[in-house]
Amino acid sequence: MFGKLKKLKYHLIFLLIVIVALSLIFGHSWGNVFAAFTYVSILTPIVISVVYFFNFYLVPRYLITRKYLQFSLYSGLTVAVSLLLESYLVVFSFILLGHFNFHKVAPNASDTVLLFSVLYLFVFGTSTILMFKQLSAAHHKINAYAEEQKLKSVSLLEIISNRKKISIQYDTIQYIESLADYIIVHTKGKEIKSNERISAIQKRLPADTFIRIHRSFILNKAHITASNNDYISIGDTDLPIGRSYRPNVKQLL
């Protein structure tokens, strides 16, 4: 729900930017508030529609999937349709807003080259922002994968217990339990106490082997013997699944 609201916020901000930009470029030159408002109100949906259609339909469906012929064809059709809509806008501004008198129409409002340039400035500006966002996400995934491989290559969890550094092999760990002010690492042969925080321990464990199912439990997936919507069993021990962790646990298991 929060993710959807966050996305909606970005779309509303983009809409506001488009309206303000178009008002600054075209609105101030009319000298007529009503005419300027009407003109910008009609131009804004055209800009928004083309930007969204190009960046959220054509690019992911054809360009990213390497269907270059279809992408070129539909991009050309998009350009043609957008030019046609802008031409209709110029005619509309001449007939209804200018009352068949070009002197009453703002000079830049009938400039089709300017209209086209502004429209595709938004289109390719949005494309650039989305590209950088995707590159940033890819870079984050690469770093996370590299960190994961680094953790897997170590294969040992090092913790401080009774003022001594202890190394525990990953495959011997069944689950880790967090209590009031300390944790217990449950292994096949013994239990090891440490004053470290479970959140700090989680960062040092490979995510493809260990999964956090509760604010108090991290378990080794290799030792799971049974599971349902509420509990995961490791041998004779039933560990509860926290409500906020259930979607992630369901996906991983």
Automatic annotation (TrEMBL):
The protein, known as: LytTR family transcriptional regulator
Pfam families to which the protein is assigned, alphabetical: LytTR (PF04397)
SMART domains: LytTR
Keywords from the named record: Membrane, Transmembrane, Transmembrane helix
Superkingdom to which the source organism belongs: Bacteria
Molecular function per GO: DNA binding; phosphorelay response regulator activity
Record field: transmembrane: 12-30, 36-59, 71-100, 112-132
Xref: InterPro entries: LytR-like, LytTR_DNA-bd_dom
Coiled-coil intervals: none
Every HTH LytTR-type domain range: 157-253
Taxonomic source organism: Plebeiibacterium sediminum
